[in-house]
């Protein structure tokens, strides 16, 4: 069986190649930053392990044996390949490059990723950003993602989670036309008399329960209605078409309320809650590409 390379044995081979190229123990020791005696011991250990002499040496000269020449012939290109591989890895440290795989809830992607993606790509042409936009709750690690942006309520405990963009509020909203025809509910329970446009998490069978705040406590209300969608854009489009009442965040509706296209209701029962979080696995050394992406998203959230 051919001998295998383990532990310090790689250093022995590297030492041998350096001596064989320099044909001098003194020069090789200087190049490697070790003492000549330590270098000699390393070469002896390698020869003993292989059971053959690799170098003929006297007080004045060093020469390769036939076995040493054969070993050098095979080792030199291998060492060059290893050196090139290490240089490639170092480039990842010095110049952000490689692929960053991102999983983002749809609203988070529209708010924090879409505005910065073009500028980021121009700033870091060596980075590939692979974005999956999906409201489904996924396992970041097993799914192969480097980072996710998701609501705080579905953050995994073993993840590093950084809040971005501030708190959110959800309110029932409807068009002036719908309100003129069906009236405004005075309490959350009165929503049961209205056609509510419901949203469902991707991968879930039941629609999302609407959450309200009263007397210091949160409570859920299971509303009814003729439309269920797992896409929040579709949910809002149906609401804007006077189909019913939707339950949406301030980020989704503030501009529509300001334009007079939607009316916010039951404000007294709505309380701010933690919004979106950047989530990524704990790691000793973060890849520069991932660090650059996270910093860019946080900057976008800060100015959003």
Quaternary structure state of the chains depicted: single chain
Helix and strand sequence: HHHEEHEHEEEEHEEEEHEHEEH
- Silhouette: rod-shaped
Number of helices: 9
Number of strands: 14
Q: Return the CATH architecture of the largest domain.
A: 3-Layer(aba) Sandwich
Mean pLDDT, to the nearest integer, reads 87
Q: Going across the biggest sheet, name each strand in turn.
A: 4-3-5-14-6
Helix-strand category:
alpha/beta
The biggest beta sheet is recorded as: 5 strands, mixed
According to CATH, the homologous superfamily of the largest domain is Periplasmic binding protein-like II
Instruction: Could you tell me the CATH topology label of the largest domain.
Output: D-Maltodextrin-Binding Protein, domain 2
The fraction of residues assigned to DSSP E strands is 15-25%
Helix content: 40-55%
Distance N to C terminus: 64 Å
Rg for CA atoms: 32 Å
Q: Briefly, what CATH class of the largest domain?
A: Alpha Beta
Key features of this structure:
304 residues; alpha/beta; Arc Repressor Mutant, subunit A; D-Maltodextrin-Binding Protein, domain 2; 3 domains; 5-stranded mixed β-sheet
Description:
With 304 residues, this protein is an alpha/beta fold. The protein folds into 3 domains: 9-94, Winged helix-like DNA-binding domain superfamily/Winged helix DNA-binding domain (Arc Repressor Mutant, subunit A), CATH 1.10.10; 98-166 and 275-303, Periplasmic binding protein-like II (D-Maltodextrin-Binding Protein, domain 2), CATH 3.40.190; 170-269, 3-Layer(aba) Sandwich (D-Maltodextrin-Binding Protein, domain 2). The protein has helices at 9-22, 25-32, 36-50, 66-94, 106-123, 176-182, 232-240, 250-258, 288-303, and strands at residues 55-57, 62-64, 98-104, 127-133, 147-151, 159-164, 170-174, 196-199, 210-214, 217-221, 227-229, 245-249, 263-264, 276-281. Strands 4-3-5-14-6 form a 5-stranded mixed β-sheet, with helices on one face. Helix 2 (25-32) crosses helix 3 and helix 5 (106-123) crosses helix 9 (288-303). The longest helix has 29 residues, at 66-94. It is rod-shaped. The two termini are 64 Å apart.
């Amino acid at each position: 069986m051919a001998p295998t390379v383990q532990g310090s044995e790689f250093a022995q081979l590297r030492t041998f190649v350096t001596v064989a190229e320099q044909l001098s123990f003194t020069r090789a020791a200087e190049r490697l930053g070790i003492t000549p005696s330590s270098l000699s011991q390393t070469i002896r250990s390698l020869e003993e392990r292989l059971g053959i002499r690799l170098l003929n040496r006297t007080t004045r000269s060093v020469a390769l044996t036939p076995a040493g020449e054969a070993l050098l012939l095979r080792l030199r290109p291998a060492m060059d390949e290893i050196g090139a591989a290490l240089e490639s890895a170092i480039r990842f440290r010095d110049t952000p490059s490689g692929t960053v795989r991102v999983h983002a809830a749809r609203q988070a992607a529209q708010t924090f990723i879409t505005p910065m993606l073009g500028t980021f790509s121009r700033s870091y042409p060596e980075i590939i950003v692979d974005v999956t936009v999906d409201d489904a709750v996924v396992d970041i690690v097993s799914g192969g993602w480097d980072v996710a942006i998701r609501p705080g309520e579905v953050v995994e405990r073993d993840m590093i989670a950084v809040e971005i963009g501030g708190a959110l509020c959800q309110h029932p909203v409807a068009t002036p036309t719908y309100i003129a025809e069906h009236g405004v509910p005075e309490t959350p329970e009165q929503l049961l008399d209205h056609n509510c446009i419901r949203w469902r998490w991707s991968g879930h069978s039941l629609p999302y329960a609407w959450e309200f705040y009263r007397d210091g406590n949160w409570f859920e209300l299971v509303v009814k209605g003729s439309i269920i969608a797992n896409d929040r854009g579709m949910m809002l489009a149906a609401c804007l078409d006077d189909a019913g009442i939707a339950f949406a965040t301030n980020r989704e509706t503030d501009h529509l309320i300001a334009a007079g296209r939607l009316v916010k209701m039951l404000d007294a029962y709505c309380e701010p809650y933690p919004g979106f979080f950047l989530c990524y696995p704990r790691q000793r050394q973060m890849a520069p590409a991932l660090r650059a992406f996270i910093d860019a998203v946080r900057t976008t959230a800060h100015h959003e």
